[in-house]
Amino acid sequence: MYAFEYLRAESLADAAKQLASKPDAKLLAGGHTLLPTMKLRLASPGALVDLGRVAELKGIDKSGNALVIGAMTTHAEAADSAVVKSSIPGLATLAGGIGDPHVRHRGTIGGSVANNDPSADYPAALMALDATIATNRREIKADAFFKGLFATALQDGEIITRISFPVPTKFAYAKFPNPASRYALVGVAVAQTAGAARVAVTGAGNNGVFRHAAMEAALGKAWSAAALNGIAADAKDMVSDIHGDAAYRAHLVGVMARRAVAAT
Fold first, then answer.
1. pLDDT mean for each 10 residues of the chain (264 residues)
2. Whole-model pTM above 0.90?
3. Where are the beta strands (DSSP E) in 51-183?
4. 55-166 has CATH 3.30.465.10 classification
5. According to the model, what pLDDT value does residue 32 have?
6. Residue ranges of the domains in the chain?
7. pLDDT given for residue 215 in this prediction
8. Separation between Cα atoms, residue 133 and residue 120, nearest integer Å
9. Which residues contact 211 (CB under 8 A, 6 or more apart)?
10. Angle value at C-alpha 223, between 219 and 226, nearest 5 degrees
11. Comparing C-alpha atoms, which of 151, 162, 155 is closest to residue 126?
């Protein structure tokens, strides 16, 4: 690990100020991606701005018909929250299936969303639930936020503050996890609202998380696992690696989608 300056923010305004004062600084949330890459010398930020003490970025609340989760809320807190369980039970289940206990007690929803790992669980949930990502500057819909592998719409100096999830009629997430990392080899989130169905896939696409239009159309007509029979993902759009080739992942998309719908 290269030498770096450690800065601890006491407020959101303080974090933004410190980030602006250090052009090569990075925000530190849970640190499960950033710190390992620094240890391997694959990243060498000159400074880290720790968000751990920023109270404004924490908390879970129900506001109208929306579940609002602060960016520094840990996966364990989301999984154990009575508010999450009563509002969107499937989201609590998703959070409880991330990594292992150590990861769940340190990793945060904001860090996961900002990193946009192509095999992470939360991006699929945000996209399926038509969530809104709020930053210290603006609000961004999930469909416009995720831009590809590890890429998002965040600009320099922009800090995720909270994520707002409209409460759906039905929601579930099913994944086929890598047995070692628990990352999704393929994960599918499905949501039903009063007027539409949304299906988002993580872990499989060669450009990161994506929505599956054909599955959405089928579920919009009939919300059942059987409605997805015969609808396949295109293998040419899938990742192929040592954990599973493109054809296998394409098959798993259909399997996980049907399991998710059956779980609602």
1. 92 96 92 91 94 96 96 98 98 96 95 96 98 98 96 96 98 95 94 93 96 97 96 94 95 97 97
2. yes
3. 60-63, 66-70, 132-135, 139-141, 146-148, 151-152, 160-166, 170-177
4. yes
5. 87
6. 5-50, 55-166, 170-263
7. 98
8. 16
9. 127, 128, 143, 198, 199, 200, 201
10. 85
11. 162
CATH no. of 5-50 = 3.30.43.10
Per the structure block, which two tokens stand in for 170? 């039905």
CATH code for the structural domain at 170-263: 3.30.390.50
- For residue 19, count CB atoms less than 10 angstroms from its CB and return exposed for 0-12, middle for 13-18, buried for 19 or more: buried
What pLDDT, on a 0 to 100 scale, did the predictor assign at position 23? 84
Longest dimension (CA), the chain: 57
Which tokens sit at 84? 């999450």
Question: How far apart are the C-alpha atoms of 242 and 215, rounded to whole Å?
Answer: 27
Amino acid sitting at position 245? D
pLDDT given for residue 75 in this prediction? 98
C-beta separation of 69 from 242 below 8 A: no
Query: Comparing C-alpha atoms, which of 104, 114, 192 is closest to residue 146?
Result: 114
Dihedral (C-alpha) 248, 250, 253, 258: value to the nearest 10 degrees?
Answer: -90
- Specify the amino acid at residue 67: L
Q: How far apart are the first and last CA of the chain?
A: 45
Which residue, chain included where needed, has tokens 């904001």?
110
